[in-house]
Design a protein that fits this description.
Jelly Rolls, seven-stranded antiparallel sheet, globular
Length: about 160
């Protein structure tokens, strides 16, 4: 389990945890749903498929057995959304995630918000709760973000399709 992770991986895990704490303490948070647009019942958003997203797993820690946790992984990825690209519809009901936006601007469509939400470089966002959403890049340049989440093995990306560094 965690004690069996190689020293470099433990260092990576420490870096991820430190980064997560830093993200949570930053004053620069991504735009949130305006209070007057928060929906009391889930709204309808269209279901979107993946369009051109490039993913690179940067770090991965096996949390199995740590503090009674089941078969879960702590994962850090870089995602690149090309112009016209779409991060597909998904939920965070059982998958907490922290996101830091490195470059560009993306638009989130969220079924708990009556209007789209804009995310910009230098901002962070916490994703966890009973909602579904998808993001799109309507600009003419790439959007790059770092996402850290806790996932079961079946949520891991296929290494064969990982973006090359």
């Amino acid at each position: 389990m965690i004690a069996n992770i190689m020293p470099a991986a433990r260092l990576g895990l420490a870096a991820v945890c430190t980064g997560a704490v830093m993200l949570m303490t930053l004053d620069v948070r991504a735009d949130e749903c305006p209070k007057d647009q928060v929906l009391t019942h889930r709204g309808h958003i269209e279901w979107k498929e993946d369009v051109g997203i490039r993913r690179k797993t940067l770090e991965l820690a096996d949390l199995s057995g740590w503090r009674g946790i089941g078969d879960l992984r702590l994962r850090m990825r870089r995602l690149t959304i090309p112009p016209g690209g779409v991060i597909p519809s998904h939920s965070h009901a059982d998958r907490p995630s922290l996101v830091y936006f490195i470059k560009g601007e993306t638009i989130e469509h969220n079924d708990k918000c009556g209007v789209p939400i804009v995310h910009r470089a230098g901002e962070s966002d916490m994703e966890w709760g009973d909602y579904s959403h998808w993001w799109e890049n309507k600009t003419d340049s790439d959007v790059v973000l770092i996402g850290v989440d806790i996932v079961p093995p079946e949520f891991l990306d296929d290494p064969a399709t990982d973006e090359i560094n």
